[in-house]
């Protein structure tokens, strides 16, 4: 490998994509971010399998139950290789009106992989009851505690990620389409068309994002089905997101359209579509990718904020923002701090996207010499 | 320069016009118009309404006219200082704006100062000492600052202070000062409450600007003129202040106008969690209660502020950076 790298000719033979990947790999945090994102999206696909419980099942007598402690050392001081939990039972304290939970240390319940539990449908195709981890059906296993209705918080967070993490993707897809179209037309043709689109973009940019998002999502009829509301919210989030993409695409089009290789292609009689699709777009795809990875977290945060305020998605839909609705004031948080746990997932996902975006930005232009 | 200013002014007017149309559409969008809600309210309070009264009210609000006439009326009324009536608060919209906007703007200005005072020195420092411990520390902190939603930060800060010191840090004033007239004691009380919202809302902006300044500084630091100036014997500090810092501040100038409305936007959610007497919670209440005259006015006001801010930035930048061509 070492010799290959030193050999100038060998290096030149790398394609643009390989060069980008090579630069990206040097950015350690970005690589970690990419791994985290991959895991998160695998988790989405296998939500029913990864989640230990059914996200809508209410465990009676376990309302507002704190995260179930996972032990390695039992009551007699013996160490177990396999982590285990105890049966937890709770009762209402008549003076404070809080549920109090105690562990019954008489019997241990080891946590196993691939245990049978609640039934679910995988990929919407077949029904199964095998879960990634759990303690079986004898006692409830609630590793992150429960909400006010006694539902498993971990399972709800895992199922919530399906909405929270796809809303950014869908929204960005629409933003991308608008941004490529308007930015491309603006940059490629120039002239009056360019000026008009630029003025339009500036006006859209001058609308304050959050108040408009709030106003639009509050205007959604309450009677709409959850699916319709979801797609309406996607549209609202993407409505203002395309301007940054349009700006990047336009800038790249302007700087590239005068390049020699475009002239050459034109002289060879290539059609406009061909020039755009095969000569221009591949040259700035990495920049577009950077903009995408940086706009997805903004949309994830947008969904979380709107749902938190109660004007985005509403229960029974499960999303991270909807879950955080329960942590509306700090009195609740002071009593049941684990209700803030969904925000940890928000932060990790957003952080991962930001770091990957940052790494991509550094790698986007692998031909430039950097200090 | 004169024609440049004129061009920007025309653009601003067009932008404000379009935004006002959007705001008006928002007012009209929810099912049930202003009149219907007004009527239900009157009926709920036990007043019986005959058809003639309903017709008269329809005419009064212009609801029998086509939509562009209604829009025209709304704007015309606004120029006369009549923003309509808030159903939810039962006050005129103008009075509510007068009650809440000054504190909102003061809070936003303080946050703005906080952001710049913190981020500019840190941005310069991390660029000069690239790859030092401080650089890595602030890069990590910056990423976290950009990733934590500010309402979560607000909840965590409140939770932390409640658990460790047993005090509640919500609101802007302690109970005894909330309705009191302004005095030195009230001012001191305000200062004690101010830091939490300022930090909660300012942290994301600070993180963003540190990164912008650091990147701009790094672009400048390697340039040949630095070497020349050093060769001429300029001290390192004066050299930094005289050339690269001035260039690195340009991207800051070009966004200074957006910052204020952005911060106000950030305060919408943080204001609700921290229970602040500012415009954010009012906007949310207006939206959830479908009090659309109030909501429309607030959205319009915030948008107009953004447009004016953008122009302010453009002009400042045009004056400060001689390389900008105006057209």
Would you mind describing this structure in some detail?
The complex is a heterodimer of chains A (371) and B (327). By secondary structure, chain A is α+β, with helices and mostly antiparallel strands. Chain A has helices at residues 2-6, 8-12, 16-26, 28-45, 47-50, 153-189, 191-205, 209-218, 226-239, 242-257, 260-267, 272-309, 320-324, 330-335, 341-363, and strands at 71-73, 79-92, 99-110, 112-122, 126-134. In chain A, the strands form two sheets. In chain A, strands 1-2-3 form a three-stranded antiparallel sheet, with no helix packed on it. Chain A has a two-stranded antiparallel ribbon with strand order 4-5. In chain A, a hairpin with a 3-residue loop joins strand 4 and strand 5 (126-134). In chain A, helix 3 packs across helix 15, helix 6 (153-189) packs antiparallel against helix 7 and helix 6 packs across helix 9. Chain A is elongated. Chain B has 327 residues and is an all-alpha fold. Chain B is built from 14 helices and no strands. Chain B has helices spanning 2-28, 34-44, 51-61, 67-79, 93-128, 133-147, 150-165, 184-221, 224-231, 236-242, 244-248, 250-273, 279-288, 292-320. In chain B, helix 5 (93-128) crosses helix 8. Chain B is globular. At the A-B interface, helix 7, helix 8, helix 12, helix 14 and helix 15 of A face helix 1, helix 6, helix 7, helix 12 and helix 13 of B.
Mean pLDDT of chain A equals: 79
Q: What is the arithmetic mean of pLDDT of chain B?
A: 79
CATH architecture of the largest domain in chain B: Orthogonal Bundle
Q: Output the radius of gyration of chain B.
A: 25 Å
| N- to C-terminal distance of chain B | 9 Å
CATH homology superfamily of the largest domain in chain B: MetI-like
The biggest sheet of chain A amounts to: 3 strands, antiparallel
Residue ranges of chain A: pLDDT <50 for 5 or more in a row?
Answer: 1-5
Uncertain segments of chain B of ≥5 residues (pLDDT<50)? Answer: none
Structural class of chain A, please? alpha+beta
Tell me the fraction of residues in β-strands of chain A, as a range: 5-15%
CATH class of the largest domain in chain B: Mainly Alpha
In spatial order, strands of the major sheet of chain A run: 1-2-3
User: How many alpha or pi helices of chain B?
Assistant: 14
- How many strand units of chain A? 5
Number of DSSP strand runs of chain B: 0
Interface with most residues: A-B, 43 and 53 residues
Order of helices and strands of chain B: HHHHHHHHHHHHHH
Our Rg estimate of chain A from Cα atoms comes to 26 Å
What kind of assembly state do the chains in view correspond to? Answer: heterodimer
């Amino acid at each position: 490998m070492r010799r290959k790298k030193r050999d100038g000719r060998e290096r030149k033979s790398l394609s643009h994509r390989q060069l980008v990947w090579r630069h990206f790999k040097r950015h350690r945090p970005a690589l970690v971010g990419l791994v985290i994102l991959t895991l998160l999206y695998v988790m989405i696909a296998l939500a029913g399998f990864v989640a230990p419980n059914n996200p809508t099942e209410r465990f009676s007598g376990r309302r507002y139950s704190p995260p179930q402690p996972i032990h390695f050392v039992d009551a007699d001081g013996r160490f177990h290789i396999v982590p285990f939990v105890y049966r937890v039972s709770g009762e209402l304290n008549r003076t404070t009106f809080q549920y109090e939970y105690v562990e019954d240390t008489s019997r241990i319940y080891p946590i196993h992989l691939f245990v049978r539990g609640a039934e679910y449908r995988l990929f919407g195709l077949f029904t199964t009851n095998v879960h990634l981890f759990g303690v079986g059906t004898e006692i409830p296993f609630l590793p992150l505690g429960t909400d006010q209705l006694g539902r498993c918080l971990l399972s709800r967070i895992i199922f919530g990620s399906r909405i929270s993490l796809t809303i950014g993707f869908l929204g960005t897809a629409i933003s991308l389409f608008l941004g490529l179209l308007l930015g491309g037309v603006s940059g490629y043709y120039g002239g009056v068309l360019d000026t008009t689109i630029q003025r339009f973009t500036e006006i859209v940019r001058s609308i304050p994002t959050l108040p408009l998002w709030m106003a639009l999502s509050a205007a959604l009829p309450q009677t709409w089905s959850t699916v319709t509301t979801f797609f309406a919210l996607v549209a609202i989030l993407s409505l203002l997101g395309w301007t940054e993409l349009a700006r990047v695409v336009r800038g790249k089009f302007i700087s590239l359209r005068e390049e020699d290789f475009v002239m050459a292609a034109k002289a060879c009689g290539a059609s406009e579509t061909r020039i755009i699709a095969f000569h221009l777009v591949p040259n700035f795809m990495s920049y577009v990718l950077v903009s995408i990875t940086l706009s997805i977290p903004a949309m994830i945060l947008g969904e979380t904020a709107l749902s938190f305020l109660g004007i985005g998605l509403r229960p029974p839909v499960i999303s991270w923002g909807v879950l955080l609705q329960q942590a509306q004031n700090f009195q609740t948080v002071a009593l049941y701090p684990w209700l803030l746990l969904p925000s940890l997932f928000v932060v990790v996902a957003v952080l991962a996207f930001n770091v990957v975006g940052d790494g991509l930005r550094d790698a986007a232009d692998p031909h430039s010499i950097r200090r | 320069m004169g024609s440049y200013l004129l061009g920007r002014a025309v653009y601003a007017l067009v932008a404000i016009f379009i935004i006002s149309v959007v705001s008006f559409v928002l007012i009209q969008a929810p099912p049930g118009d202003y009149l219907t809600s007004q009527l239900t309210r009157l009926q709920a309070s036990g007043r019986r309404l005959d058809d003639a009264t309903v017709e008269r009210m329809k005419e009064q609000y212009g609801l029998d006219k086509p939509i562009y006439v209604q829009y025209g009326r709304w704007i015309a009324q606004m120029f006369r200082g009549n923003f309509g009536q808030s159903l939810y608060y039962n006050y005129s919209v103008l009075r509510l704006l007068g009650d809440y906007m000054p504190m909102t703007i003061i809070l936003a200005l303080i946050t703005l100062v906080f952001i710049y005072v913190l981020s500019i020195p840190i941005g310069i420092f991390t660029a000069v000492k690239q790859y030092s411990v401080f650089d890595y520390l602030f890069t990590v902190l910056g990423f976290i600052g950009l990733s934590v939603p500010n309402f979560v930060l607000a909840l965590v800060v409140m939770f932390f202070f409640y658990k460790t010191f047993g005090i509640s840090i919500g609101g802007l004033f302690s109970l005894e000062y909330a309705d009191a007239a302004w005095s030195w004691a009230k001012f001191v009380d305000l200062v004690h409450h101010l830091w939490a919202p300022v930090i909660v809302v300012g942290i994301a902006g600070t993180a963003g600007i540190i990164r912008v300044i650091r990147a701009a500084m790094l672009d400048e630091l390697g340039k040949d003129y630095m070497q020349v100036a050093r060769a001429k014997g300029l001290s390192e500090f004066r050299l930094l202040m005289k050339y690269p810092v001035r260039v690195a501040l340009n991207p800051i100038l070009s966004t200074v106008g957006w910052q204020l409305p952005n911060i106000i936007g950030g305060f919408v959610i943080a204001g609700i969690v921290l229970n602040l007497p500012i415009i954010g919670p009012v906007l949310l209440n207006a939206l959830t209660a479908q009090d659309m005259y109030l909501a429309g006015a607030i959205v319009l006001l915030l948008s107009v502020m953004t447009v004016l801010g953008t122009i302010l930035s453009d002009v400042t930048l045009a004056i400060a950076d001689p390389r900008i061509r105006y057209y």
